[in-house]
Amino acid sequence: xxxxxxxxxxxxxxxxxYLPSGLIETLxxxxxxxxxxSRGSGKxxxxxALNWEERLENKWLxxxxxxxxxxxxxxxxxxxxxxxxxxxFQEWLASEKEVTHSLLFGYYFxxxxxETLAYSLGRVTNTLHFDVDLDAEEEGIREFxxxxxxxxxxYKRKSPTTVAECHELIRAQRRRLERFAISEQPxxxxxxxxxxxxxxxxxxxxxxxxxxxxxxxxxxGLSDKWHFKCCxxxxxxxxQHQLVVVNSIIRTSNWPxxxxxxxxxxxxxxxxxxxxxxxxxxxxxSTIHLDGLSRPEFEELCDGVGNIRINATLExxxxxxxxxxxxxxxxxxxxxxxxxxxxDLVKRSEGPTARKLQTLAEDFRSSPWVKTRESxxxxxxxxxxxxKLNLDPPDSSLPGGKRAQASREFRKKFVASYLxxxxxxxxxxxxxxxxxxxxxxxxxxxxxxxxxxxxxxxxAKLPLVDLxxxxxxxxxxxxxxxxxSIEKRQSIKTGDDVSxxxxxxxxxxxxxxxxxxLQRGEPKTVTHxxxxxxxLFHFGEPLTDGGSDDELYSILKDASEAGFLRxxxxxxxILGFKVHASMAPAFGFSYRGAYYPxxxxxxxxxxxxxxxxDDELVTIARRIASRLLAGRADPDQKTLxxxxxxxxxxDDDD
Length: 654
What we know:
The chain has three domains: about 20-290, no CATH class; about 340-430, no CATH class; about 495-654, no CATH class. Helix 6 packs antiparallel against helix 8 (about 165-180), helix 19 crosses helix 20 and helix 23 (about 500-520) packs parallel to helix 28 (about 615-630). It has a five-stranded parallel beta sheet with strand order 2-3-4-1-5, sandwiched between helices. It has a three-stranded antiparallel beta sheet with strand order 7-9-8. A two-stranded parallel ribbon has the order 6-10.
């Protein structure tokens, strides 16, 4: 049984949970939160991990919570935002004044929030997980209805006295407003027949009165009062004005009701509200960027996800073992050593290039810097780099800080050197293996990590307990990792996550091929070593939504949200873009993706988008690469050995 299932949350009957302590504690806090990440980064899992029903009924989540389903003293709802209804409101209110649009959509979102709160509280009490004093419940509902008596307008049933009846009342008003939108009745008729309250007040009022009922029923003290969370998933489907309304509700929310909103991709502006001179500040909410996790944070997340999956599988396949395995990716796949791979490649090659590399490595062994290496294999990567750039290794006589910095800058060229060696040896399929490469190729996407581990498990053909002992050859790992990358590239055609899959496919193939050629280099060139791991593309000027290149902006954004590109953004502006590192094995570039900028012309991208055939896309990419490689090294890249400490080009993940 393969524990590294790649199915999405929605398609798994019983979900397994790993809760990263820092992230889940932030979300459990009473402040509102935004969760932002590309598809597959784990947003839905985090929001579902807050949901009261999952916390009570999912044994894996309950175990992660230490058996405390109501840890944090809150009840959280989970709602996937309804795309059809949101579009209906957008079309219904498109020509209305801003104030009318804000009032009606704000009321709708508020009713949805209050309805889910009432439903959840009713379910919790009906399942007898804890008792709410009937008198306290009735008093809370009576005060809520009295405070919001407009909800009774047109309601044919009696005034509610229980949470369940209150849920029916709120749902009836939500459906009534929804019908106005879907049937596109005049907004004037809607405003004449319904009293519209201040935006956000319904859920706030319901939460206030019912939290008091819970506090009274459980004798809550000052430090353990109850609160509520409304979690909304897939908020990227909100229009810009709808997002501003939601921001307004979040900005004016207060104890005991808060919101958790998740987005695919970076929203345009999370600070704007419908209120003049009132914006959403950092102090008002927490923001979790899942695509921006540090390397240690991401490794911890992947190991945690793998650990819970493996132990769940072992519990099924080895129920009598009675102990848990501590899984670490690095223990199973091993630590990266590029020279170990090159040593095997050289042994298998009989050409003159292999013999030259052997001579270079042997001569380089006498270098003082080599004596500090941990690898038992010959220094092919270092020797090749020093020879091609006519460099000496970092001088051991330099002061400690400068010597360490110089050594780091030398190491940062290793991947470029490795790729170039593979090209000169005529290796058609560049090897990718070991934990460092798996993490790098995942590019902070848990789904891509699981896809690689799934393929490794399938290729290794070992029982799970044997797989955990490690010892999987780099050849097996490499075949599996490449399969995962190719499978993802081919998935673009399905269009599951992409609104314009054909355009995204063309862009991914051409930019992937271009990145590969730029980083591997061409015969008799060393530009790719001086400016290594290039492929952070830019035009010299940013792309702006709504500008003259609106279609190009939309395609780049779409490709990024689907996990095929990474964007460098500043608000609404796209400053640069690069191919997602998960595409590296499919196109033969660095497992770390691209680090250094390279200018590309818009005309190049337009030519790519108009070219349907893969062979032609490859030809275009190689023509662009030849032009770029023929030029000088990028002026944006710093010198190989900076004179000042702390001048590193990027954090050394390895």
